[in-house]
Amino acid sequence: MVRVPVFNINSIVSLTAVRRIVSVAVILFMLLYIGQKDMHVFAQTAEKEQGEAYDEQGSYKSDEQLTPGETPAVAEPELISETVDPDAQLWENAERFVGKIDWIHANLYKTAQDQVQKFDYWFKPPAGKERIIEQSRFRVGIFGEGKIKKHEQLELDPLVDFDADIELPNMRRRLKLVITTLDPTKLPGRDITEQQDTYLRAGISRQWWPNVSSDVGVRVRWKPELFANAVWVSTWKRQVWTVYPEQRFYWENDTGFGEISTLAFDHWKNRWNTRFSTSIKWSEQDRDDDRQNKFKDDGFRWSEVFIFGYATELLDETQLGRIISGGDVARGWGMRLAVFGRFHFVDEYRAGVFYRVPLHKKWMYFMIGPDVNWINANDWDREWTIKCGIEMLFWGGKER
After folding, report:
1. Residue 178: pLDDT above 50?
2. Does domain 12-49+72-84+123-399 have CATH number 2.60.40?
3. Which of 76, 197, 209, 334 has minimal Cβ neighbours within 10 Å of its Cβ?
């Protein structure tokens, strides 16, 4: 039996000491970067050509405009915001198998988007915006997870992930149809292969203010269940750091109410990235489980996640959960440390790496990530986990 002699995790004093050490380390790390001039915007621009440079405000400078001693800026990660080729070749002109795959990818998206537009045209477009077409986004992922436990055989868990963000601009302008298998009640920092709820969710989303949105819908299962979410999310830029606060309230008719508070810190220096996030979750379901098991945690769960990595391409994502887990990295790698716990004790320690690379152009990606876990429920025995998967993106731009 392998044990990890870290702290007495059943002690509140030990947990408090761990949190203080982590907090001090984070503050010291942030202070190292205060005052630096490499201001970075998370939504990256495309890579710069050699011999070109951009100042802190993004103004272009050629080689002749650079002052003596000023060197061109290192290229930043490219932002992937569109994956469908608008000028897809005909099937007869497509070359070999690769060309056929591109043709299928482009025409699948075109077929789906045409149906969305036909439905949206049922509603009267706003005056002067009849020709504006907001392109929808579809994402399909196939993931697998393998676990190697002590004295046990390898366990394999497959998972199909689907997410559709369907734009309906004429239907009250800001209304969207959302179809997804992602669980909005999952504690941030958990991988998609770990979520217990994999049922398909379909609902209507409305953006009320720039930072406030809500959605209402149905979780599709043998007995459909209603759900509702209200989310406030913002972005604060503080010198070299970007801060992402999020507050989520949710309700489901089978599990009741819950809320998730998240604060993520993100720092880029050229293509090197440092992220730290902390999340706290409370739910009626967890509270009832704690009372049934005679725990004194009152339904609270928390997570701390630290990521350090390198990326040359990023996905144009607005989901805070993908930022925390590193799922927005399109081409790159990262090291991830995470701790999960309850109000009075730690549940799990985790350490691992992840690597993502395009398989084909900018719409098919491969991901692999080995982890090692120490879980309280398993008496802190070491557990090896490897996750891998393929993700396909069907993203269009904006047409007029």
Report:
1. yes
2. no
3. 209
**Residue 153: how many CB atoms within 10 A of its CB?**
8
Q: Two tokens at 378? A: 């398993």
| Cβ neighbours for 125, distance < 8 A, ≥ 6 positions apart | 132, 169, 170
Longest dimension (CA), the chain: 72
Residue 49's pLDDT band (boundaries 50, 70, 90)?
very low
What does the buried/exposed string (b/e) look like for 12-39 if buried means 16 or more CB atoms within 10 Å of the residue's CB? eeebeebeeeeeeeeeeebeeeeeeeee
Structure token pair of residue 29: 């790390």
What are the tens digits of pLDDT across the range 238-268? 888 999 999 999 999 988 999 999 999 999 9
Tokens of 74: 């290192």
* Residues in the chain, overall count: 400
User: Are 151 and 249 in contact, with CB atoms under 8 Å apart?
Assistant: no
Q: Would you call 323 helix, strand, or coil by DSSP?
A: helix
> Residue 236, Cβ neighbours under 10 Å: how many?
10
Can you read off the two tokens belonging to residue 79?
A: 């932002």
Dist. CA 392–CA 366, nearest whole Å: 9
Which of 274, 213, 276, 273 has its CA nearest to residue 244?
Answer: 276
Residues 348 and 339: their CA atoms lie apart, in Å, by 6
What integer pLDDT is reported at residue 55 of this predicted model? 37
Element (H, E) at 274: strand 272-283
Q: What is the pTM of this model?
A: 0.75
Rounded CA separation 192/65 (Å):
48
Neighbours of 360 (CB within 10 A): 13
pLDDT value for 304: 96
Supply the pLDDT for residue 2: 34
Q: What is the model's pLDDT at position 73?
A: 52
* Cβ density class 254-264: b for 16+ within 10 Å, e for less: ebeebebebeb
